[in-house]
Specification:
The mean pLDDT is 84. By secondary structure, this protein is mostly beta strands. The longest helix has 17 residues. Strands 1, 2, 3, 4, 5, 6, 7, 8, 9, 10, 11 and 12 form a twelve-stranded antiparallel sheet that branches. A hairpin with a 4-residue loop joins strand 2 and strand 3. It is elongated.
């Protein structure tokens, strides 16, 4: 009799435990961002019908599931439309992170547009669709051989407008 009660109790307990929901909790420690592809010393060339339009050179490029990273990268973009008023744009950075249309340039960022714009900063964001570069840190550089320093840079490359906060602009009166 006692064994019969014990077996029935175990059966009821097993059926009850079967219907208790179990959650599979993933912690951030379990989720690792593993690179899909790693390139050592990559070089990328973009060609148009007429000429070479873009060159990207880096020490290392890593492609993850949701972003791309390039280390010690150098990007050179040649202007295809002469009416835009410049020939070459150059961007250098220690780290470039691409999240879709947004590029993030970090550490020792240098932006040059021919010889009339040269900007240095520690961080720069660039929206490839809207052609807008912006940051929220200090920057310095030259604009037509005049010195410019400030914070919160906003550079619209479509209409060549420059906005900034806390600007210090030194104009060379000799030129």
């Amino acid at each position: 009799m006692g064994v019969n009660i014990f077996v029935n109790a175990l059966l009821v307990l097993a059926v009850g435990i079967y219907f208790i929901p179990v959650e599979n909790k993933k912690t951030k420690e379990n989720i690792k961002d593993i690179p899909l592809v790693v390139f050592e010393k990559p070089k990328m060339f973009t060609l148009s019908q007429e000429t070479l339009t873009r060159v990207v050179i880096a020490n290392k490029a890593i492609k993850y599931k949701n972003r791309d990273e390039m280390f010690n990268a150098n990007i050179v973009i040649k202007n295809e439309k002469p009416q835009r008023g410049f020939f070459v744009e150059k961007v250098k950075a220690d780290l470039i992170i691409s999240h879709g249309d947004i590029l993030t340039f970090k550490d020792n960022v240098n932006y040059q547009k021919d010889s009339f714009i040269n900007l240095n900063t520690s961080k720069l964001y660039y929206n490839t669709k809207e052609k807008i570069a912006y940051n929220d840190v200090l920057y310095d550089g030259n604009y037509y051989k005049n010195t410019v320093k400030g914070t919160d840079l906003y550079l619209n490359l479509m209409n060549n407008s420059l906005k900034s906060k806390n600007v210090h602009f030194e104009i060379d009166m000799k030129n």
